[in-house]
Amino acid sequence: MRFQVIVAAVFWSGFVESRKVRGISSSYKRFYKERKSFLCIDGSKIIPFEQVNDDYCDCEDGSDEPGTSACPRGRFYCTNLGFRPHYIPSSRVNDGICDCCDASDEYNSPAHCQNTCWNLGQKERAYVEGQMRTLDEGLRLKQQLIEEGVLLWREKQAQLRELQQVAEDLQIKLEEHRRRKHEAERLKEQTLKALEAGDSGLRHQNRTETSIFQLLDSNKDGSITVDEVKTKVVLVHDEERLLSEDEALGLLGGGHQIDLTKFRRTLWDVLTRGDSVKIKDTPGSDDPHLEAADKAAEWEATNLKKVEEAYETVNMEISDLRKKLAIDYGTDWEFLFLNSQCYKLKVYEYIYTLCPFNQVTQKNTAGTEVSLGSLSISPHIHQPLEHISKVLPGQLSFPSEEVLPSAR
Amino acid sequence: MASFTERMVPVLVLWLAVCLAETWAVDRGNFKTCDQSAFCKRQRALKPGESPYRALLETMELTNTRLTLQLINDNNKVRLLLELYRLQGNITRVKINELKPLKPRYEVPDVLIREPPTEPLSLLSQDENGVVLSLGSESQRVIISARPFRLDIMEGSDVLMSLNSRGLLTFEHLRMRKDTFSYKVTSTVASVWDNIKRVFSSQADPEAEKKEEADPANQAETTKEEEEKVEDGMWEETFKSHSDSKPNGPSAISLDFSLPGVEHVYGIPEHADTLRLKTTENGDPYRLYNLDVFQYELYNPMALYGAVPVMLAHNTQRTTGIFWLNAAETWVDISSNTAGKTVFGKMLDYVQGSSETPQTDVRWISESGIIDVFLMLGPTPKDVFSQYASLTGTQSFPPLASLGYHQCRWNYNDQEDVQSVDAGFDEHDIPYDFIWLDIEHTDGKRYFTWDPHKFATPKEMLQGLMDKKRKLVAIVDPHIKVDSNYKIHNEIRSKGFYIKNKDGGDYEGWCWPGSASYPDFFRADMRAWWASMFAYDQYEGSMENMYTWNDMNEPSVFNGPEVTMHKDTVHGAWEHRDVHNLYGFYVQMATAEGLIQRSGGIERPFVLTRAFFAGSQRYGAVWTGDNAAEWDHLKISIPMCLSLGLVGISFCGADVGGFFKSPSTELLVRWYQTGAYQPFFRAHAHLDTPRREPWLFGPENTALIREAVRQRYTLLPYWYQQFYHAHRTGEPIMRPLWVEYPQDPATFAVDDEFLIGRDLLVHPVTEEGARGVTAYLPGKDTVWFDIHTFQKHNGAQNLYIPVTMSSIPVFQRGGSIIPRKVRVRRSSTCMEHDPYTLYVALNLQRTAEGELYIDDGHTFNYEKKEFIHRRLSFAKNILSSVNLAPDAQFTTRSWIERVVILGASKPSKVTLQTADGQDSQLEFDFDASMSVLTLRKPGMNAGADWTVMLQ
User: What are the Glycosyl hydrolase family 31 C-terminal domain coordinates in residue numbering (chain B) (predicted)?
Assistant: First the structure.
């Protein structure tokens, strides 16, 4: 019986002790063990223990008044059972405003504070659970996006490789075509040269009456007719114009055809003077070799151009793809899907269009659009993706119909 | 073209030089110089000399309360009526009006709190040269000299003040316009008729002839008047693109005052200038014309937002005041016979004994109205304050919370913004009482409305603030958007309450909402209607913790002459010209009345105004308008508020941080430290500036600002008591040193430090990069205690004080007791029931005195004697609290938690004796190094009688 009383007394006194020192956390209890005196926690002063929480500030550090507003730099511990404990400045003790959810800060105040910790705790737990669900959902979404991202990434990589292969092939082709074009041009050049050489030799050797006569006598019947003159002889100063019947007749001395003898006296003279008419100068035009070489060169040039263009296109595609692939889409490419998306956000009279990794624009109701620059997302902030999935549907129109045609 | 260029080169160079010197300044060209203001130019062209006015002594009438007398202008024979009153409390009132004006001239109503009670005047002597009247018992006399007219106020053999001694009394009498057709016809016909009449009468009626002779004035008047030349600007005046039609013609008045023995004059706010007024001979006069001056310049006499036509004159013997009750555009010229003299010159005069008495001459010029001047004869500064208060009333007693810190900016964007700023103060543990909403909170600058998106649920927002015991101020400007979908506009228009333009239509100007009209606040019915708009059921979204700010009430009209209203607009029988400086006064009056009415007459209002006039102190607070984030603007806040305090407007402050531009962190901190010790403590910022809430400048600066604001809050009991005192007496709260040390000439021009009440001396740090300040500690047998270190300094010395960024040099006068509340909380209301700490600073006689005033902090119940007012005194080692108002009743939960006695010696025992006769021993702590005795937790109720004995 006596033992029980003692135990009860010890219990009770222990209970009293922990009740008496208001505003401290359990980890600080050791500083406030009931003794005759109290040492300010900063060690600056010793005061009688009755002066702890007596609503007068004795310690410089405020440690003697953890449960009152007496010390200017003190703090009060809200236990907040059922919710999160936390410290508030001493100045909020008994100021008529409920700060601790357990109402412990307003123990001597007209404010009727309710203990709301359980509710808050429940709410917080519900919130945390919600957060967890959202997080899970987010993580699931993220996993999905990662998978998609990885696939897309691989696809793009494959595309890149393909393109690079194409480019390589094209390069080979290109070289082949260059070579062939070169060859064709060389051939053309040779033919032309040969022709020119033959031509001038001809002229040199056959600068005799007979050879010219033979040249003019297209049908080789031993006489030159008006028609033959008209096809082979032109005015010196106007090569393009055909001679008229009369002019041809004049050159033939008035007759419709002349033989070699007559030629010497008429046309030959005129030609040797060389100031009015000459033999039409069409070297190679009717040379079949030259014509073939020319066509071949042209063909090869066109071919080369086509290949070059194809090569350039492929290279541009490669560089575009590389640029896109160089962007940081997060460690697992979880942001890759954003690359082709745009979002709209309405703030008062403005509509903002945000295209991640691309442009941001602001459009007012009057329809004026202003570019606000480009939106780069640094995935290494590692904003949880669930956050985006949570925020976007509320504030942004997301995504289906509202998604703008992607930039590319 | 070449010559044009040549001419422009020097102009350009000058312009560039100006630009380089002052890259930022007011556009002076928008505002008139005296030369550009026709009446000022005309009046100023008159030089001192023999006055054309003569007192007609035979017209004198003396009753028990007043003397009347006619004055005649010998040049044009126009007669004036002089009235002279002796008012209670050593004030002489002189009124001069035309004897028979063509139409009535404006006399300012509503500024005087009542018809001032008079005291009998008695005639001492009279002869043909003048009369001598007694001003009561103090051997004070008024001497009216007849030829020329002059009025002197004497005490013994000293002249205190002379009127018209320089002959500058002028009265542009109202007249018919001569160059108009109708005038010509009437005047020609009249003169023809006069001539005919004269011819006939001289022959036929000798009686009439005699009459004519007996009244030569009439005849002379007509002939003389015709000789008067019509000057430019008499009947029409243009400034920039604005023309002023002046249908009443010239109407200016002017009078000079000589102040023998005076070298220091003060007052006539509002000007961004030194406390001591400068002489104006080499420039423009000080101008009083309420104007919205964009980016005002410092240290010049240009007009600003408000006007109080009161000047104080001071020397070691006496303080006097001149109150020129006129609401029209007014210019004040100041000259002095010693102003040009160097110290050496003055010394030479003294040595040679040849010095003439120093004298300051003042000349007031107003555009219209009458001369109605109150000569406040002191003799002490406090007498002048009480004399002025007896005329125009005292500072309104504001709600205690309005003495806390105010957080303002143009603009807090939306409710969320308000909430997050509010939360920011809690997070950083900085107290504040009021958050402010500028014009953007409204729906398209329609006052009394809310932006439907940004402030969709204002009551929710207000409730959130109320839960934290905090308050809000929303702006209500007097320009009303012309919009037929706006209820306020429709009602004002349908009631015909708008100011009319000269053609009778509603005046329209341009202001924040675009096209706007201006309610005629000069109409009592308009003001009553306006007040009713603040009722909770009228002003949607308003609650009892929402108060009001009246800006732009000069009135500001963006497209008007000098950014204000055309002078020829019409207020009933009067032109805007007559009443201009009163507009803001009435706006604030009507608004304050609205806030009182909405609570059924229970709650004290809080209304901030930018424009003001004499008497505005009765309606709330004033700030110094749109200043800038510059060190010089910080400095000028001191003389600007000191000047306002001298003329009754105590509740003054400047935008902390500076409105335009962005302050450096150092400037911002210094401004908080200064503002914390000025009566109205509000931070404000322009829309275009970066955010500057106190916690945006790093933890160190946040801590510095927090500390400055906390110092303010610990001293709130003292501030509140000062406001109560100002409300009772009219004494300024923030006051120049000379007010308390009137015989110490070293204090006369000090305006980089100031007193709060009698007991706190503040020398804020207002220099960039300051390492120290030199403060003048006044009082030969006075000691001052540094309120932070408790170090004691002797008075009558310049003290060099080394400073760091945390320093705010403030001293408590030895001989004073200051109550503080050292438990600084979220807002002043949260501190309502907190205990007091008494700071007892002993003087050389080891005595001290102070007061403690407590009431509910927000209602008019103090008028019903619901307050505690105690005298605290320390003498012979006994500190006691005595009831100063035994007939008052109030109970408080506050108690005395600590007594700190500065300059004490160590007692062996300290005993507390309470009213019930019980004695108890008090614990104490004595710091021998600083001689500071701290009594631990005496615990008596702050409203009780008690005695503490040191043995």
Answer: 730-818
